[in-house]
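Its record is quoted verbatim for completeness.
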Amino acid sequence: MTPTETFAEEHNLCAIPADVARIKRQLRNFYSAVEKIDRPGHHYIQLHNGDSVRAALARQADLWGGMGVSMVLAEMPETWSPKYRASVCYHIAPLLDDVVNS
């Protein structure tokens, strides 16, 4: 199984390689944007940066909504500290409301 097929299967996607490449690029773009908002470290991303984190995700059209958020959570860089990762989860959690309440 190719890495593209593995990614698509892990995230339950029916996607061609170009789709997977686009989604992976958008994930990288989002993670880079988050790192520019508040550089990674052993700390939480401050509350006042939450709107910026969600706006960075909104710019990545394929990642908006519950399915996109689930991919963001699953593919987060392992180099980020647990506190940093948890704060990203906290800031994008409101976008899961449509999944939980559907």
